[in-house]
Amino acid sequence: MASDLPPYFFRTRENGAFVFRVDTEDRMRRIEMDQIAVVNIRNGEIKPHGDRPLSEADLAAIRDWMTARQAELAARDIDDIRRTVDHLNQTAHWAQGKASDDQLAEITDTLLMAMHDLRTVLVRKKADRLMRERGMG
Fold first, then answer.
1. Extents of the domains making up the chain
2. SS3 content of the chain, % helix, strand, coil (to 5)
3. pLDDT at position 3, please?
4. Burial letters for 36-72: b for 16+ Cβ neighbours within 10 Å, e otherwise?
5. Cα separation of 122 and 78, whole Å?
6. Rg (CA), the chain
7. I want to staple 99 with a disulfide (CB 3.0 to 4.6 A). Which of 8, 42, 103, 105 is the partner?
8. pLDDT given for residue 25 in this prediction
9. Which residues contact 54 (CB under 8 A, 6 or more apart)?
């Protein structure tokens, strides 16, 4: 098992990760994890932990992880939006056939405001894209 472990472990957090170097060479066959850095995905910052410098191999592994993590988060964003479309469709079905008058009264204004806000943003963004595509922006 120990030989199958990656050389680094990234404990993810909201805006990045704590980076640990994984050591399995301990005499007792224990897994040692030594924190070597803190990473911020949003600003690309890599801060060494403590006084130790990061090697080129450390930096390369961290940068590779950051690139992969950013792609993973972007894919999750799109997946979340696709789920939102599904939820909107389910909500329409619920409102049309299952919702009581009291349930509709409770949620209609809030839902209409959220949908109006979303529509306004989408229309504006689409108009901006069309203007740029036509060389007008």
1. 2-83, 99-137
2. 55, 20, 25
3. 60
4. bbbbebeeeebeeeeeeebeeebeebbeebbeebeee
5. 15
6. 24
7. 103
8. 73
9. 36, 37, 46, 48, 62
Mean per-residue pLDDT of the chain = 93
Amino acid residing at 47: K
Summarised one tens digit per residue, pLDDT across range 18-71 is: 999 998 776 677 888 999 999 999 999 999 999 889 999 999 999 999 999 999
Q: Looking at residue 26, what DSSP letter applies?
A: -
Token pair for 38:
């803190």
Q: What sign does the CA torsion over 104, 109, 113, 114 have?
A: negative
pTM tops 0.85: no
Strand order, beta sheet including 16-23:
8-13, 16-23, 32-40, 45-48
Residue in the block written with tokens 């839902």: 111
